[in-house]
Design goal:
- One of its GO terms (molecular function) is metallopeptidase activity.
- InterPro entries: MetalloPept_cat_dom_sf.
- With 416 residues, this protein is of the alpha/beta class.
- The protein contains 13 helices and 9 strands.
- The chain has 2 domains: 8-214, 3-Layer(aba) Sandwich (Collagenase (Catalytic Domain)); 218-411, no CATH class.
- It has helices at residues 41-63, 89-98, 135-138, 153-170, 200-210, 223-236, 238-248, 258-271, 275-283, 286-307, 322-357, 376-398, 404-411; strands spanning 15-19, 26-35, 66-71, 75-76, 103-108, 122-125, 130-134, 217-218, 320-321.
- The two termini are 24 Å apart.
Length: 416
């Protein structure tokens, strides 16, 4: 929430809907239409405008602040393929800074899939303050019935309900099962002709959180100031980052990236049978091995962050907002935990090879060993050293097959 500075707020032709609240503060929402080829953008923009008009009253009533929805130019997608919501993040975060906007609602007509590869009508990211709505799912009809049109009342009011539901998630509201309000788990109701009310308890929470939406912003003069602003933003909002990380399952990410895992594991299967690697591992101290592993994991995460260009928005701006900084910090920690998970995966495999495949007395006969006894700690340390090399090679050679999977696992839940 912010009082308007120079930007699109000064152009009344962009206002799709507005409702004055009892409090002077304002929430500016950018509405972005992303349409498939051959889709009439004017029709989808008209529908998005109607949805904004249907939702603004309920949101203003619940939060008691002024809400304004601004319709931006439509974006033409290259194909009709299904998309993850994070594929819209780059454009959304760019427009959020350009607007400037406090929230972004993206309306698209291509299928939307969750991280579990399930088709969903919409998803929201409280951390990035972006909500994605797909009319593809909302227009579907029962078997042997014609596909619903955008003019259908059921499509109109279910979309409006979904938008209020997702904005509620952005403002911190959680699901309330079977209470008849807008925050119960969303389902398409063909008889719906109005937006359900927001529960009174949720109204108090939304009012409180809406008053905290005044995101800090900075105009960093260089990378050091930009880094300092990201650190300060993370220090002010540790709970949001920890919640996103808890939902991300980041340490399991290497299992979803076979190219990265293969690039990390392949060289270690060769190195583990090399006498030189065992010499280094046995003569390395535990502290040195631990530091080498920590630095390598951190280096791999930073390398992927910058080489894969995973920060938002990807187009550099003079202004950096706090919620954009929180998105970048979260994505970095997701990468860091993913590299820890990759290290653990490779380490486990190497340790199994050491304990099961290698003859128990083989290492004891090596002339480079000062003591013939080879203990379990020696095997663990050597396995850690070899695994560290694997993590570095995985990041450098394998990389990420899909940039969007990182931001999706970090920012978007699995259901509306």
């Amino acid at each position: 929430m912010r009082r308007s500075r120079s930007g699109n707020h000064d152009d009344p032709t962009l206002v799709a809907a507005e409702r004055e609240g009892a409090i002077e503060l304002q929430i500016h929402v950018g509405v972005l239409v992303a349409h498939a080829p051959e889709t009439d953008p004017d029709q989808l923009q008209t529908f998005a405008t109607q949805v904004a008009e249907d939702t603004v009253d309920e949101l203003a009533s619940a939060t008691e602040v002024t809400w304004r929805f601004y319709l931006e130019d439509a974006s033409n997608l290259p194909d009709h393929d299904q998309r993850r919501p994070s594929e819209f993040l780059d454009h959304a975060t760019h427009q959020m800074v350009e607007g400037p906007y406090d929230l972004i609602v993206v309306v698209t007509d291509v299928p939307l899939v969750s991280s579990k590869e399930q088709f969903v009508p919409g998803l929201a990211s409280p951390l990035s303050r972006v909500a994605i709505v797909s009319t593809e799912n909302l227009r579907s009809a029962p078997r042997n019935e014609p596909r619903r049109s955008l003019e259908d009342d059921a499509v109109r009011w279910n979309t409006a309900t979904l938008v209020v539901h997702l904005v509620g998630h952005v403002l911190g509201a959680r699901h309330r099962d079977a209470d008849g309000g807008v925050m119960e788990p969303f389902r398409f109701d063909p008889e719906r002709r109005a937006v359900p009310p927001i529960d009174a308890d949720i109204e108090r929470d939304l009012h409180r959180i809406a008053a905290e939406l005044s995101a800090a912003e900075a105009r960093p003069r260089g990378p050091i100031e930009r880094f300092a602003f990201h650190v300060a933003s993370a220090a002010r909002n540790p709970g949001q980052i920890l919640q996103a990380l808890g939902n991300s399952r980041a340490p399991l990410l290497p299992l979803s990236l076979p190219k990265l895992s293969t690039a990390a594991l392949a060289p270690t299967l060769v190195i583990v049978f090399s006498a030189e690697s065992w010499d280094v591992g046995f003569h390395m101290t535990n502290v040195t091995a631990a530091l080498f592993a920590a630095v390598s994991v951190l280096t791999a995460a930073l390398y992927l962050l910058f080489v894969q260009n995973l920060t938002f928005p990807r187009k550099r701006h003079q202004i950096v907002t706090e919620h954009t900084a929180l998105v970048n910090v979260t994505v970095f920690f997701v990468l860091l935990l993913a590299m820890v998970g990759l290290f653990g995966l490779v380490w486990t495999i190497i340790l199994v090879i050491e304990l099961v495949v290698f003859p128990p007395n083989l290492m004891s006969n090596w002339p480079s060993l000062e003591e013939p006894a080879v203990g379990f700690v020696d095997l663990v340390r050597t396995g850690a050293f070899i695994s560290t090399v694997g993590v570095l090679s995985g990041a450098l050679a394998g990389g990420l097959e899909s940039r969007v999977i990182i931001s999706h696992l970090a920012l978007f839940p699995d259901r509306p």
